[in-house]
Design goal:
By secondary structure, this protein is α+β, with helices and mostly antiparallel strands. The chain contains 7 helices and 36 strands. The strands form 7 sheets. Strands 28, 29, 30, 31, 32, 33, 34, 35 and 36 form a 9-stranded mixed β-sheet that branches. The longest helix is centred in the first third of the chain and has 26 residues, at 2-27. It is flat and about 120 Å long.
Length: 635
């Protein structure tokens, strides 16, 4: 009985222990530790191979790949191929499934090699470094023609040549050419470029293949196959007896290098040094393996082939050194049909846009007109549509002027499809921050501008002018150079040029631009250059403007009429039908139309006693008064 009781108690204890362990194991936090993770289908990449963005993990029940990022020289790669030799890194982010765990003791194996465990944000990852090398190409055979004696002036060409590998080809015949004309065996060589052409017969079933090298004597040669013949051709230069015109180095620079969006015709290689014995003859661009037909550069590989011509008795040899841009070319100069050329390759990557940059937008000023001129600073990458202005989210018409308040400049972008746009891309307009929004494949740029009315006091002005000065201010006719000045003082040539430009812009509803090249040595005032570009004013000589000289009343009338004429106003006047001033005979002939047009419509009046005061100096308030009168008359 006691033994049975004892067995019963042991059985109860065993059952209790089993269930306790099971409950602890199932309710606890313990996970299965993964000892090894093997990453498959990822091999050392070769040049021009496609980037592998999918890999396989053998323990798919425990670990999966969440993301793969490739890096080149420490920077994220956006292209899809290994485009050049170098060091590349593949970063593989992984997700560990529920119930499993990895640690520093977990082994990660790639291509039978071990990589170290790392974490980012508490999740495992591995970094695998690869070295991409230039491919090793082994040519099994070469066509080498031996026995050639290099040609010299005064000798005959060498026709006694033989094959270095007679087991797979024989020589059929040998021909020599100068300037693409074949010479006979009796001709004596003179200075110049010659070609040796060796026709061959292939033996033993041997066939040509791309990349097969050839040589005639000591010179590299090319292999050409026609429908009837196969021949090897090399070029030789025979130096003339005298070398006073010998050209040993050709140097060409690229002041502007090709980049995405730049126009092809803007890349003009130039000779670096002065040399009267050669010149640049022609420039031909190639994209990839064919001629470039586009007007602008895009992403890809481009070659610039520069053809030379030797002049004034100049000549060179096949050892000529060629310098194009920032280094000597690895090969000597080449020739096609007797024309010498050198070429350089440029690589243009696919653009990555992080900031859209614009300029040329005139920020609004009180009473001013809208400016819709915005220029993108990355030609070919993106362009702008028409600029629209809003006040309080209401569209402004093209005749609305700016008052006090907040205004919004808004336009959409046309982006080249080859460009990659950062999701967080921003914009700058005239170095000011703008916002970028992307929706439904439309990219919009917006910028807010605050407009305030200038604060000007009319303390130093005549009583008769105060009302017209305030009206001129409200219509943005007062240039900043005349803010809070003594308006009873005479106006200078530079100040009046600024007033005349404001009048033109207000009547024409156009923004004036300065002349591109400043002809004056005594001023660089942008308003003067705008007036000069419009033909409103001239200089006092070919190189001087005399900006501080004073304006006479007849000059003021003439310049105002020119502003109105440029703005589209008909300013013709019948001099026979107007009432003449008493000092009419003092008015210069070039000023008659201006004086009598402005006086006939009541904008400029005389000074009393029917006198115009032709040579009297115009004051600042007079200039601004006739400016606002003109706007009220013709706007």
């Amino acid at each position: 009985m006691k033994k049975k009781m004892y067995k019963f108690l042991v059985m109860i204890l065993f059952i209790f222990t089993f269930f306790t362990t099971y409950i602890y194991a199932t309710n606890g936090e313990e996970k299965i530790s993964i000892r090894r993770v093997e990453i498959a289908s990822l091999e050392t990449p070769e040049l021009d191979a496609t980037i592998d963005k999918e890999v396989t993990i053998k323990r798919t029940d425990a670990v999966s790949v969440s993301n793969i990022v490739w890096y080149k020289n420490g920077r994220t790669m956006f292209e899809n191929t290994f485009d050049e030799p170098g060091t590349y890194m593949c970063r593989i982010y992984m997700e560990v499934k529920e119930g499993y765990m990895v640690s520093s003791e977990t082994e990660f194996m790639v291509e039978n090699g071990w990589v170290e465990y790392a974490e980012m944000g508490g999740k495992p990852l591995v970094n695998i470094t690869f070295i991409v090398k230039e491919p090793t190409i082994i040519y099994p055979n070469r066509i080498i023609i031996g026995g050639l004696i290099n040609p010299k002036a005064g000798n005959r060409a060498d026709y006694d040549l033989f094959p270095n590998h007679p087991d797979f080809y024989t020589i059929n015949k040998v021909e020599w050419y100068k300037d693409n004309a074949m010479i006979s065996q009796a001709d004596i060589l003179s200075g110049g470029t010659y070609k040796c052409r060796v026709y061959i017969n292939l033996l033993n079933g041997f066939t040509l293949y791309d990349g097969l090298l050839a040589r005639i004597g000591s010179e590299d040669a090319i292999i050409i196959t026609t429908s009837n013949d196969t021949y090897v051709e090399a070029e030789y230069f025979v130096e003339p007896a005298q070398d006073e015109c010998y050209v040993s180095v050709v140097r060409v620079d690229f002041p502007t290098k090709p980049s995405f969006g730049i126009k092809k015709n803007s890349i003009i290689p130039e000779k670096v040094e002065r040399n009267d014995y050669y010149d640049i003859d022609e420039i031909v661009w190639y994209k990839e393996s064919g001629t470039m037909y586009e007007d602008t550069f895009r992403s890809g590989s481009y070659r610039c082939r520069v053809f030379f011509k030797f002049i004034n008795g100049g000549y060179t040899s096949n050892t000529l050194q060629v310098y194009m841009g920032d280094s000597f070319l690895p090969k000597t100069i080449s020739s096609i049909n007797g024309r010498y050329y050198a070429e350089r390759t440029f690589y243009i990557n696919q653009p990555y846009i992080t900031t859209f940059k614009f300029t040329d937008l005139n920020l609004p000023e009180f009473g001013g007109i809208q400016d819709n001129k915005v220029t993108s600073l990355e030609p070919g990458m993106y362009s702008t549509s028409m600029v629209y202005w809003y006040k309080d989210d209401k569209f402004m018409s093209n005749v609305d002027t700016f008052k006090e308040g907040t205004y919004k400049c808004k336009f959409t972008l046309n982006v080249n499809s080859e460009c990659i746009i950062d999701e967080q891309a921003n914009a700058q307009i005239n170095d000011s921050v703008a916002t970028v929004t992307q929706a439904y494949n439309t990219i919009t740029v917006e910028m807010n501008c605050e407009v305030k009315k200038p604060s000007i006091k009319w303390t130093n002005s005549s009583d008769w002018s105060k009302t017209e000065l305030e009206s001129a201010l409200n219509n943005a006719l007062i240039p900043q150079t005349l803010y809070n000045k003594d308006y009873t003082k005479s106006i200078t040539r530079a100040e009046f040029a600024a007033v005349a430009v404001k009048l033109y812009e207000r009547v024409a509803y156009k923004t004036a631009s300065p002349v591109e090249r400043n002809p004056f040595t005594d001023t660089n005032d942008v308003e003067v250059l705008k007036a000069y570009a419009l033909g409103i004013t001239n200089g006092t000589s070919a190189t001087t403007f005399e900006p501080n000289s004073l304006i006479t009343r007849q000059e003021m009338a003439t310049m105002m009429v020119r502003s109105l004429t440029k703005a589209g106003i008909n300013t013709t006047v019948n001099l026979a039908g107007v009432s003449k001033f008493s000092d009419h005979n003092k008015i210069d002939n070039w000023a008659l139309d201006g004086v009598y047009f402005m006086s006939n419509i009541g904008i400029i009046k005389g000074v009393g006693n029917n006198t115009f005061d032709v040579f009297g100096n115009a004051t600042r308030e007079e200039a601004l008064a006739i400016s606002i009168r003109s706007v009220n008359k013709f706007k």
